[in-house]
Structures are given as C-alpha cells and as structure tokens.
C-alpha cells in the first residue's frame, strides 16, 4: 500500500467519489471560491478576492423572559452532532496524510496551514478529468476557433498594448513577440479567461481521486513550494481544473522551472504582471530549444507525384534538400534556412502542407498537440500582418470519433499493420500503421484516417 494513500481500497474510494456532488452540496458551511476580479493596475490582468464562507443560518431570536406565573417550557432536546460522510472523511484523511508528506519534503507549518485550512474537494474536477469526448474536431474546425478573425484583431490590439514588454522578452530570450502573444491568446484569450478554481483544491482533488495520484501529488507539492516562496498567495493561485495557472497556463512544476521575475518586484507573478507573463513564457520556449532567427515553419506546395509517405514529422532534412525535391513556399519566396525541417500534412494529401522546423517542436513542448503548435504559428504570423493558410481545407471529410479510431487501431493490428496499443487516439504509431495499409492498397500513404479508409480496412480481405 502507498504510505500516504487512504487505507481503504480503490473501489470504495471510487464509490465515495460518486457521492461527492451530493455530499458537498449539502454542506451548509462549504467555502465558495470567488472568480478573480479585474485588477485595474495591470493591463489585461486579473486579480482575485479571497474565498468567502457561506454563513450558517442565524438562530431564531430568544423571546423575552416570561412572568414567573407562566407555564414552564419543556427542555430542548440535545442536538446530536452529524457525523461526516465517508467521502468527506476520506478526503480529510488523505489531506492529513499528504500534509505529513509535504512537511517531510520541507514545507513549513505556516504554509501547510494556509494551504489546507479550508481545502475543498471539487467534484467537477473529477468529472472533467474522467470525461472523454466521443467526437473529435478536424484540424480546420479547431483552427476556425483558435485563429478566428476576432482573435487575430484582438491579438493585434493586445500586441500593441504590451509591445514594449513583449519586445524586451524577445530581446532577452530570442522568442518573437508575436509568438509570445499568440500563446497568450491561445492559453487565456489574452488574459480574459485563465480559470477560476483554486489550484490547491483542484490538485488535492485529483490526488485523492487516485487516477493520476502520483502526478497530482508532485504538482501539489510544487504548488506548496510556490506558496512558501511568497510568489503568490493561496487565494490568487487560480487556474484550470487540471492545475494549470496564470495567463499562459503553467503547471506548478513548470512555474518552478521557468517562471521569471521580470519586473523586479521580488515575485514571479504570471497572474497579474505582464512583464512576468511574457518573460516566463519566453524562458519556457528558450529552455525548450527555441532557436532565435528561425521561423516555426511555413506553408508549402508539393510537386506532382510527390511520395506522401515522406510527409512524416520523423523524416527531417534541410530546407535546401526539400527544395531539391521540388518543395516550394506557398508564397513563392525561397524557402527559409531550416537545418532539420519536416513536412507536416495535418489534413492528409488533400489539405495544406507545411514545412516545420525546430521551433515548431519547441512549441510542442509547451503543449504536445500538433494542432495547437500549428495554431500558435498561424496566429503569430497573422498578428504580424502576414496571410493565413492559402490552400483550401478538405471540409467534406469527417473526423473519426474516438470509438472509430479504436476500431481502426484494432483492425490494423489484426491485419498485421502495427498501430500500437489501441487507445482511440491518433499517434505516430497509428499513423505509421495507416500508411502501411494505404501502401498495400495503392492509396497515397499520407497516414490520414478517414471513414472511407476505415470502411476499406473492414472490407479488404
């Protein structure tokens, strides 16, 4: 048994989790977290107000004393204390055990008291963590929202407002101001929405729930170190349900590794200081391998008869070598110098093609989703006044659901086209399996799954 896990079995804890919503809703004195209020002193930032408690109902007023001749009243029956529900007690026990662990890891008593005095179990966090979307969006549907005209216009306005700070971060770390502002836009819509949940409460809930206990415990300990350092107070440590914090959504461990005090006030404040927000984001990318002077990538045109199997992010060579194979920039300009570039076809052979370099992979270390990294690059270039995607997207194609991807993976493995362990997610192993099957039936081996390909896989002997 894990030394800090509650001494009941996981099945019982899962049953308690199902009672969470009822248990917490019925607690008359449950603390309520107030969303952060705007901070007028910082452009685009948000402050916060401390959590408030819901007051218990007031007692009825006591009647004036009666005359001695009045009939005596019956004595009130004693009130029996209500025992805590099993889930509440189990969560409290887990927190107490984690406090002992954190104290042993160097967290002082004052920080532990501040962090856990009114810690809450948040049922909605468990619900979000366990929910798995059945339907997935195509890359063009994702980009329609992530790089919408309104986000571009708003981003250009915000870039103008923070230009001096963004340029200072760019000069120090070598990451363009447009990339920094694009990440800011993607992560919190330029500071307008970076979550409203207590990071301590969210991570304690995830740790107690147990599905990702080791990860959540590590992040919770990192959050306590941040509180102990004095960078932020508990009530202002606000973030998403998964514990990502501040205007560019750092996990606590990443905050400890990359956050920067750029304004010199002695605190690393990615919630309220735009200087710290931008410099911390730039430091993250620089430490992730960003190469100054290189673009993230660009849209390209492929020559007739191109072997789409070479459009694989694991096949890397210089842009000069790609040019020798007939790859051309969509804008008609010479390809920029990229020493280890790969071709990326996010919608397969029928969609736009991109040549992406080392800096594209640095963005992936910020968020390991190719659609996210592409959105950051495209948003950044349009913030700079450059055009967006030129080639049309194949909008008639329907994205596979998670269940369909699982079926695809299972069928590929059964037929000998190794797609890795079936999990309903399109990863490199699945794309490689799709390519092998596509070659076997004479289709362009672009690795892109479609309903037609799934049907063909099911019917081909």
Structure, described:
- The chain is mainly alpha-helical.
- It contains 19 helices and 8 strands.
- A 4-stranded antiparallel sheet has the order 6-5-8-7. The chain has a two-stranded antiparallel ribbon with strand order 1-2.
- It has helices at 10-18, 20-25, 86-104, 109-116, 123-130, 139-146, 149-161, 163-173, 177-188, 199-209, 213-229, 252-258, 274-287, 319-324, 358-366, 370-383, 402-414, 428-440, 451-459; strands at 31-32, 52-53, 197-198, 238-239, 297-301, 328-329, 342-344, 353-356.
- α17 packs parallel to α19.
- The model is unreliable at 1-74 (pLDDT under 50).
List the quaternary state of the chains.
Answer: single chain
In which range does the helix fraction lie? 40-55%
Mean pLDDT: 85
Strand arrangement within the widest β-sheet reads 6-5-8-7
Describe the structure using short key phrases.
45% helix; mainly alpha; disordered N terminus; 461 residues; two-stranded antiparallel ribbon
Please render the helix and strand layout as text.
Layout: H1 10-18, H2 20-25, E1 31-32, E2 52-53, H3 86-104, H4 109-116, H5 123-130, H6 139-146, H7 149-161, H8 163-173, H9 177-188, E3 197-198, H10 199-209, H11 213-229, E4 238-239, H12 252-258, H13 274-287, E5 297-301, H14 319-324, E6 328-329, E7 342-344, E8 353-356, H15 358-366, H16 370-383, H17 402-414, H18 428-440, H19 451-459
Antiparallel strand pairs: 1-2, 3-4, 5-6, 5-8, 7-8
Helix pairs in contact: 1-3, 5-10, 6-16, 7-9, 8-9, 8-13, 9-16, 10-11, 11-12, 12-13, 15-16, 17-19
